[in-house]
Amino acid sequence: MAFDIDMIKKVYDQMTERVDKAREVVGKPLTLSEKILYSHLWDGNATQAFTRSKDYVDFAPDRIACQDATAQMALLQFMQAGKPNVAVPTTVHCDHLIQAKQGAKADLKRANETSNEVFDFLESVSKKYGIGFWKPGAGIIHQVVLENYAFPGGMMIGTDSHTVNAGGLGMVAIGVGGADAVDVMAGMPWELKFPKLIGVKLTGKLNGWTAAKDVILKVAGILTVKGGTGAIIEYFGPGAKSMSCTGKGTICNMGAEVGATTSTFGYDESMERFLRATDRSDVADAANAVKDYLTADPEVYETPEDYFDEVIEINLDELRPHLNGPFTPDLATPVSEMKDKAKKNDWPIKVDWGLIGSCTNSSYEDLTRAASIAKQAVDKKIVAKSDFGINPGSEQIRYTAERDGILKIFEDLNATIFTNACGPCIGQWDRSDLKGDEKNTIVHSFNRNFSKRADGNPNTHAFVGSPEMVAAIAISGRLDFDPLNDTLLNEDGEEVKLDVPSGIELPPKGFDVEDAGYVEPVSDGSDVDVKVAEDSERLQLLTPFEPWDGKNLTDAKLLIKAFGKCTTDHISMAGPWLRYRGHLDNISNNCLIGAVNAYNKQTNFVKDQLTGEYDAVPKVQRHYKEKGIPTVVVGDHNYGEGSSREHAAMEPRHLGVKVVLVKSFARIHETNLKKQGMLGITFANEADYDLIQEDDTFNFIDLEDFAPDKQLTIEIVHEDGSKDTIKANHTYNLPQIEWYKEGSALNLIKKQNRS
């Protein structure tokens, strides 16, 4: 029996009428993405056709999911909203605060000891407000959601950028900041600019060493890290139908790496199989009754160029295995070309670690395909040359895989089975085999490979591949190993070749688990006491941000001009900093410490204009705040790429930064800045980025007239007294300008609740 089955049936009951009405209003056949969007309009049936990339639209998501690192700040904000319960089904999943070190049992024990204060807070606040709680060790949020909550045709939001994983079950699932989630928890609409649509037609069928992961690795190479910005990617075609549900989830998951709003697939038999295998036959039956509404209209897939803004076609028969990286997930290299490319770029050939798991590739099928390679190594007397780490996706997967002997295969290869958690994928990895900044290579089945992300070492070259390819390369110990063509020497000195991997889509004996790790919310949480100690280093109750005074912003100093890629990892690092995700002041000590200063090409070393000396970014900014001086952050393209973490917006806001001025934003980060009452704007002329000098002062001379579609004028005063006047664009609509005026979206919610 599924969770929230009555809600799901209600979605399907209203979907037919809403989609039929939308088709009539739009005047043409609809894609699946449009069907889901139009059937989740806040105001009910469509009354107008929305313009892609232009119209802001209010939606009514069906549910919310939060992981423990982001849930802290989201729920601290919700506690201020004055609501007794969440308005839509919501869950919290404890998967980010568990460090991989010794193995599952020891690591989970240590996490429960070191983060018990946070886990207790999350469990108590969940009980108080009617939120489902998944304990540490229960699994990675997106795999747990796929196994328990995702359903075809639904809409969900989650406080993690890889919420998009649920597109593997035909949802429109979108990563957001905590403030967006708070809106929906409080019973308010969720706003999104109506997305563009990218269609990916898949023909043929995956074969040999090629996996579902290779589809998105190929797409990432085509679109780059910002090519999907503002768009939903919809996959279709015979190749899409031939893939497993969890394979579809992998593809959707990593769509976040091309900036896509989300990705999705039409409902098909693989999704039905997965629903029934995960004890949700009631959902499958309900979906089958409206299945024509859970995929695009036939005309769309017949002539996709007429309905999508961009169409990509990939023949799976011809697709070959890829490795993407290092340092960016869109640097795509076919495995067959890695030998030459690695040599040309001086990438370290020796592979120290192979890591399998994460929310991208930790399903039962993923483990079986990787295990089929590991078993060959054992049977053919091949000694693995690299260390191995495995993170199962959920306790249900771990328990089932152990029952079926899959985990023992990895253990026979001396692999370490880590907790059912994110671990190394988000920097929660106590890596003991390296010291300092030694140049080295790792391969993993994760989604991101930004500098420092896995282990904090800026010289770790991380490459992304499928679980089976990671297993093969880790066994060989060489980045340039091509299992399709190369051989290995076994213990007897014989040359042996690995056979193609084989996998099992769903466990033949069914899934099983003794304790899934779920804690159901109490029916009435009004008497539950949520405690936050005043002297806590981990948790801090929030103080509302100050409203705008309505005046022009003048005499603002430059804090940092960020050079090149500046992701949310650069703005607010994860890893050891995760311990402070519930304490805004403490975590603000990592604000922008990973951003590269354009003037000296160093990190965490900027000029304090008041003293003329250089120091750490947070220290300099705190000095400006102490003196009451506003500041500006300047950035390059796709600023805020990566995670949905709103801390990357809340930290500079808390420390007194007033404006973020960049060439372009990643979608989620731009929204997060707006929600927190920040001014997030872009250069009208990108070349004006080059005008910014280290000692500049900024005057926003017409901010008093802040209005939609109206450029802002900025006077830049240089140290020698000379001036440049530039224009900046923004995407604020009237409601978002109200957030700015009130100091944050949450301030506006509280004001509305009082009135």
From TrEMBL:
Q: Name one GO molecular function term.
A: aconitate hydratase activity
Q: Where is the Aconitase/3-isopropylmalate dehydratase large subunit alpha/beta/alpha domain?
A: 40-477
Highest taxon, organism lineage: Bacteria
Functional pathway: Carbohydrate metabolism; tricarboxylic acid cycle; isocitrate from oxaloacetate: step 2/2
User: What are its E.C. numbers?
Assistant: 4.2.1.3
Tell me, what's a Pfam family for it?
A: Aconitase_C
Record PROSITE patterns: ACONITASE_1
One GO BP annotation here? tricarboxylic acid cycle
Gene Ontology terms: cellular component: cytosol
For this UniProt record, give its keywords in alphabetical order, as a comma-separated list.
Answer: Iron, Iron-sulfur, Lyase, Metal-binding, Transit peptide, Tricarboxylic acid cycle
Specify the enzyme's EC class, one word: lyase
Required co-factor(s) are: [4Fe-4S] cluster
Catalyzes what? citrate = D-threo-isocitrate
Residues of the Aconitase A/isopropylmalate dehydratase small subunit swivel domain:
558-686
Q: Which InterPro entries match?
A: Acnase/IPM_dHydase_lsu_aba_1/3 (IPR015931), Acoase/IPM_deHydtase_lsu_aba (IPR001030), Aconitase/3IPM_dehydase_swvl (IPR015928), Aconitase/IPM_isomerase (IPR050926), Aconitase_4Fe-4S_BS (IPR018136), Aconitase_4Fe-4S_dom (IPR036008), Aconitase_dom2 (IPR015932), Aconitase_mito-like (IPR006248)
PANTHER family in alphabetical order: ACONITATE HYDRATASE B, ACONITATE HYDRATASE, MITOCHONDRIAL
The record's similarity note reads: Belongs to the aconitase/IPM isomerase family.
Q: What is this protein called?
A: Aconitate hydratase A
- The organism encoding this protein is Croceibacter atlanticus (strain ATCC BAA-628 / JCM 21780 / CIP 108009 / IAM 15332 / KCTC 12090 / HTCC2559)
Taxonomy, top ranks, is:
Bacteria, Pseudomonadati, Bacteroidota, Flavobacteriia, Flavobacteriales
